[in-house]
Amino acid sequence: MLHAAHIILYSTNADADRIFLRDVLGLGSVDAGGGWLIFKLPPAEIAVHPTEGVSTHEFYFMCEDIERTLADLTAKGVKISRTISNQGWGKLAAIKLPSGADLPIYQPLHPTAFDLEG
Fold it and tell me: By percentage, how much of the chain surpasses pLDDT 90?
């Protein structure tokens, strides 16, 4: 059955964002050909939220300690684009990718599913 997920981030500066994911966030990657990097992600989970409008999809990185994570990223020169806010379900912030896009990061305050067996 299903064994993985493939997530696509669309970018106006894909090369710079790929370098950021590799060099700043330290994500391992494989070259799918011609320098097209595909990155290994940490464990993941998926949720389905109701909507009355057009269906969209979102991507968030998760961390155990948002304050420490943002401090570590700031020390590497990463710009914080959204300061920490407590949403009830988690502490949410965002960092700025080289392309200018925001990349949300949150510390979950809800039970997580990414380490379940099976």
Answer: 86
Specify the amino acid at residue 44: A
The whole model's pTM is what?
A: 0.88
- Measured CA to CA, the distance from residue 60 to residue 116 in angstroms comes to 19
DSSP 22: I
Q: What SS3 state is found at 68?
A: helix
Contact call for residues 73 and 66 (beta carbons, < 8 A) = no
Mean pLDDT of 59-75: 97
Q: What backbone torsions phi and psi does residue 8 show, to the nearest 5 degrees?
A: -115, 125
79 CB burial (10 A radius; 0-12, 13-18, 19+): exposed
Structure tokens at 85: 């806010």
Mean pLDDT taken over the chain = 94
Interatomic CA distance for residues 20 and 44, integer angstroms:
20
Alpha helices in the chain (DSSP H): 14-19, 66-75
CA distance linking residue 53 with residue 101, whole number of Å: 23
